[in-house]
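FAQ
Q: What does a multi-component entry look like?
A: The components come first, one per line:
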Amino acid sequence: MTNYRGYIALFLMPTVALFLLVYAVSIVILFGTSFTEWSTGLKPAFIGFRNFVDMFAKDASFKDGFWNTALWVLLQSTLHVLIGLVFAIILNMKEFYWKFARTVFMFPNIISGAAVGMLFLCMLNPNFGAVNSIVRLFGDGEYAQNWFMDYATAFLSVTMTWLPYAAVVTILILAEIAAIPDSLFESARIDGASELKINLFIVIPMLRNIIGTCVILAGTSMLQKMDIIMMTTGGGPGNTTLNLPMYIYKTAMMDNNFGYSNAVGVFLIGFGIVFVLLVRYLFRIGNAST
Amino acid sequence: MNKTFFKTGGAIAGAVVLLASVTACGSNNSSSPNSGVSSSDNPSASTSASASASAQASEQIAPKAPVKIKYLTYRVGTHASAKLEAEQIKQFNAKYGNEVEVQVEEIPSDSAYEDKLKILAASGDIPDVVMGKNGINDILIKGNLATPFNDYLSQDPEWAKEIGDEALAANTRDGKVWSISDQKQTVGYFYNKEMFEKAGIKPAQTWDEFMSNNEKLKGAGFVPLALMTGENAWTTNLILASIVGTSGEAGNKFMNTLHPSDFNTPEMIDALGKVKTMLEKYTTKDAIGAGYANAANSFCQAKAAIIANGPWMIGDFSDTTKCAAGFDQKVGIAAFPGNGMISSYEVGYMNGGKTQETRDAAEKFIRFKTGLEGQRIALEFGNVVPVSDQVQPSDELKQKYPLLVESIEVGNQSQVHYGSFDSIVYPNVTDAWKLLYPELVFGKSTAEEIAKKLSEIAAKNK
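Then the predicted structure of the entire assembly, as tokens:
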């Protein structure tokens, strides 16, 4: 083992160098400038914690963005993962349709976010959108909506552009189910357990680690979600669909306030770390399955 | 064994080719005689005596290589000005290609261009020629990243004359001309003559008549207005700006003020109230949240009777991929009620060159684009209104686009002039309309509250 230490260091070096250059430097700059007043074209001026104080004390848009982000993280790490899990269990029954269903379920995940945004923008268009056309077929158009812009439907409409498409979760869980020894299933069946009981009391408990991982992946994906929001609502109407990544973009690019934007970025990173630690603790990720 | 040998050999050969190509790219960048970096700007140039001697010898023989300048443009693809941009660059290359090499980078959207320029400005690495639109000029001026044109203009008074005093004054701050405008915005509204005839109306003289026309159009079974509140709410805001701009002295002054900070004015509140009514009663169902393409499509497909927009849209009316054949014959143009028209000069081009050589080359490119030749190309290929009276549409263009001639006449007859919101407000205010209009229409905020919010947003700008 000792003989390989040099090689290990050598092979790790490019990754470490890349990490330091691309991420570490950026994060240090992000943290450093979050304590400054800094707009494009000017040098950063140190202002202590003022950005953070303003964020929590005065900024209603930040609060709206934070609550929306938190709600989306919660929905994605629960409902989204649940959908993926249920679908994985159904597919694991290996009925005649399972390969077809698995492929079709994957489609939304291989399309770029911007394209998905455009797709939904057309589908939910109040004039010619497919959804309103169907709604009008069953009535006089009373329930036809401006789905992305009406206060009553905007949040739900944006949420539906990503919440149901849990193919990544399904695939990860399917792979984990495949690793469960067949002998366990056989023993359960000999003992007279139904498929439902096998899934509830054997399969799902043994998936704890991968479900925890999926919760982290799904939840943290909401901390960087911006493309679809940008394509569809831009954070509106009002701040109804504003999230923190969108708010960071607006603060930096529109308000030209990089210092404040970076302070919100620091908060978002902190929020992400707390979320990951919490999920790791709840799911005891890394501990052997019992 | 053989397999392994070939695999290893192939991998090594691939790596060597990759390394060679990377090295070649690097060396080309660093030592290219065309880099445009003079020896005084590049200390490494004087480190080798022999290299310097041989360079001097070759300079005596070889002609001077063209200076390379970087230019980012969003006028590409389906952009209304894509054709004029391509033609201007083509003609510039034909005329000055041996002196200046323009390295064009295409950015396929206005907002992506603005974002990229802001990021580049933050790192101090802007292109040599920059379009200073939507607040980019402010950032470059504040960061001391651009060179004023005063010296160039005083050395070439003919060029200054071609641009005109008004256009130069529009982009002058504290006596420094920071950008050169390439076009004049003269915006009224287009209307569908057939629909107007069927509704028994003529272009309105007052805003009350305008609202009454909307009601008559609606009564005749037409959607009166092609509005949109997504993106920068362009077609809606042209009407909003016109209501404010024609409302009297105070409103007109407001619409001619750069970076207004207080939107809480009676004119603004009244205008927001009128636009609210238009959005509620007289436009398409998708107007709230719609983009420009939706509004343009509504008008071109004869689904709405009126669209506020500039003459650059005229070409679309005879483009059968956008409008039905013969649609251009049905379109009329009018000034806004109160004989008002949006009339402002674009921010235009800024010089971001970092060395004297690239600054001079950038100036040459900008001079071509904004001089009579460039303005003529813009008019002929993009229906863009020139900044100089010396440039007039050709007979061929007049025949092809009679509406363009009409639009120039309407512009000349209009008496009340003002800027568009995009040209006067801070970029964050431009970005806010798409969030605020739904608030207004869905009754979450009153016109007074929206005006107050606009002031708060403007105050956030750094």
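Q: Is there any commentary attached?
A: Sometimes. For this entry: The longest strand of chain B covers residues 184-192.
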